[in-house]
Amino acid sequence: MSTGTGASVPTLGHENYLNVSYGVKSWLLTTDHKRIALLYLVSITLFFFLGGAFAVLIRLNLLTPQGDLVSAETYNKFFTMHGVVMIFFFLIPSIPAVLGNFLIPLMIGAKDLAFPRLNLSSWYIFNLGGLFTLYSIIRGGVDTGWTFYTPYSSLYSNTHVVATVVGIFITGFSTILTGLNFIVTIHTMRAPGMTWFRLPLFVWTHYATSLIMILGTPVVAITLALVAVERVFHLGIFNPALGGDPVLFQHLFWFYSHPAVYIMVLPAMGVTTELITTFARKKLFGYHLVAAASFGIAVIGFFVWAHHMFVAGVSPYAAMIFSILSYLVAIPSAVKVFNWMATLYKGSVSWATPMLYGLGFIGLFVMGGLTGLFLAALGLDVHVHDTYFVVAHFHYIMVGGAVMGYLGGLHYWWPKISGRLYPEALARFSAIVLFVGFNLTFFPQFILGYLGMPRRYHAYPPEFQVLNVLSTAGASILGIGYLLPMFYLIWSMRYGPVAGPNPWPATGLEWQTPSPPPPHNFDVTPVVSWEPYDFANRPDLKYPAPAPELGHFQPAAQD
Amino acid sequence: MSQAHSALAEQFRDLEQQREASSLGMWVFLVTEIMFFGGLFMVYTVARAMHPAGFAQASRHLDVTLGGTNTAVLICSSLTMALAVYASQVGRRRMLAGFLALTIALGCVFLVIKAIEYADKFHHHLVPGSAFSFAAPEARPAELFFSLYFAMTGLHALHMIIGVGVVAVLLVKAWRGRYTIEYHTPVEISGLYWHFVDIIWIFLFPLLYLIGLKR
Ligand SMILES: [Cu+2]
Q1: Residue A234 to residue B25, Cβ atoms within 8 A
Q2: How far is the CA of A320 from the centre of ligand 1 (A)?
Q3: Can you identify the CATH homologous superfamily of domain A29-541?
Q4: Which of B43, B156, B158 best tests the A interface by mutation, with the highest count of A CBs <10 A?
């Protein structure tokens, strides 16, 4: 290896992106992708807990069959705001805008993203959109569901649809610009020797994600803009009474919003790939297949949207085609899962915290994916459509998948981001709490949905109460699993042990520079001469002799 | 490159890498623009398929002469923009400034004609909303047509206004000698944008103005 930076002194004394300048202005006007990533981290964490607060209110209301906490109208607003905030202001930006922003330039050996000022404006655009949505929440919220189905959203609803829709429209541009920045950066900014097939799979999945961002987001943006225009000027584009077509809205909405699920889960797959190979200490099985599968998912994902509309009156032939195409997405997804399994097989698996999240991701994603196949089946979908079965399915993908990936990645790269290690025992404990809490919350919802409990109702027949109480109990455990990392990660920024450049150790370029990285990432432009994940042929990586003990995790000595 | 060009941003190795990145960035941006307009074209297609007669009748209320003139104006502006890019490539500063100025002028002519058309629609109660009036059987489809007419040409006009602003900035910088044979990427990628906006109009014109013509 030839970077000359792998053996830096493992203290935080060196000049890095955190201590190079101080003050609010140096952060709000920064063009450093690493600082912008942290700005995003703060923004989306706030939105996560806001969306989480709505989830708490929903679960509290569902403790009793008659829905004692709030009225049906207020309940409609709760699940709408929960969905809007979590999807558009947390899940979509989560891994790309925080981890992708921080890591892509480091992983490909670049000084920054191709367009640093554009990157900063993306963050401002994101927050501007967020302010519109906050305004609508403060003024009383929206009750249309996060799907904004017309003509309810464009004509009948008396809530603040326009402000929310404008907020999502604006935020969409931050997503588009982030995707654009990533694509251009990956194409043009790679270090010498960093060929396409030496890129970490985290980068490949972000490339595929960026494609969805730039192709899908504009469509939902213009669609929601038309809803706002229709509402303000009383037009009839999506209103059957005025000659328009409400199902057209659903087509356009899901053309983005199905692929949007892959904006959330593809980056999480990228994170999981890194975690599995690093903590199995074994070269990734089937690198090219895993890379290609990301694109398979992204491309096929654009042709399955009408599986959300099987009961909305699409023709039986269209429904059959969309059903078959939806099954096809399972192939590249399964390719990834089997490659992870094959990587673990005969690997030297360690149970570090990020690995717990990685394994958790695989289990929950498989559950979510397989139940997705149930929903892609035309007959079964009619039975479980708009029930808690659907709610459980997409929470397994979006929370069990995407959020597990996000937290796993946050732990894995936290030493790089902060320069310090978090308390390992506590982190493992909270990962397990999270896993248990998640399953307790959402598994009962599969049963509820199968038994016929519809989603989006604030009251339900008494025979469903036991499962609902279980779910609410699980949610409180899940909440602890989310709160703990926030506290100990913040704590570790000051009191955690110094991590050194490559604590795990892992093979990526990002681990060849000091932690936290210097302002321009590398002291010398790295030249890459090794294949990806080639643990066996990397004498520069030294492993701690025994697998780390619970609570006594020792970073690898670097020299 | 041994000594850094003053236009070289710090994240790039050299001007070549910077040019590649900017140009790819513009192409990717235009792809998102296609999807953006694509949503509107999709809505148009579905609405017209549902109401072919109403759309044709409403279309006859558009002024083909003004629309045709505007098409010619935009095609000319694409030519002047292409010549401006050529001038920047061969490093001829006055020629560059001249063609940029001409492009701005043609862009403004387009916008003025568009404004005249909008005003005319307003006078004839063809703006959707409470004041909209149209002969009875096709009133609903016609309102739909004009909703889409204003949405699509309005979004296009917004892109024209942005384009004129961008070219105006280029003009000032070109006049000051900012662009040379080595560095003229902004002119090139703004040219891409300008041509894209023109092409959108090439699709809008027949779909909106010509579908009502007698065969
Ligand atoms: Cu879907």
Answers
A1: no
A2: 15
A3: Cytochrome c oxidase-like, subunit I domain (1.20.210.10)
A4: B43
Residues of A in contact with B24 (CB under 8 A): 183-184, 187-188
**Closest Cβ opposite residue B40 in set A181, A215, A222:** A222
Taking only the tens of pLDDT, chain B with its 215 residues reads 446 688 888 889 888 999 999 999 999 999 999 999 999 999 999 999 999 999 999 999 999 999 999 999 999 999 999 999 999 999 999 999 999 999 999 999 999 999 999 999 999 888 887 778 887 788 888 999 999 999 999 999 999 999 999 999 999 999 999 999 999 999 999 999 999 999 999 999 999 999 988 65
Domains of chain A, by residue range, sit at 29-541
- What's this model's pTM, rounded to 2 decimal places? 0.93
- The minimal CB distance from A111 to the residues B11, B20, B28 is found for B11
- Which of A110, A188, A219 is the closest to B24 by Cβ? A188
Q: Are the beta carbons of A236 and B20 separated by less than 8 Å?
A: no
Homologous superfamily of domain range B53-209? Cytochrome c oxidase, subunit III, four-helix bundle (1.20.120.80)
A170 neighbors A89 (Cβ within 8 angstroms):
no
Are the beta carbons of A180 and B33 separated by less than 8 Å? no
> Are B21 and A236 an interchain contact pair (Cβ–Cβ within 8 Å)?
no
| Number of helical (H) and strand (E) elements in chain A, helices listed first | 17, 0
Smallest Cα–Cα separation from A470: which of A500, A446, A492, A450? A446
Residue B183 confidence (pLDDT): 92
* Backbone phi, psi, residue A549, to 5°: -80, 150
Locate the domains of chain B by residue range: 53-209
CA dihedral A474, A475, A477, A482 (to 10 degrees): 140
Give the angle subtended at the CA of A121 by the CAs of A119 and A125, to the nearest 5°: 120
Complex-level ipTM beyond the 0.90 threshold:
yes
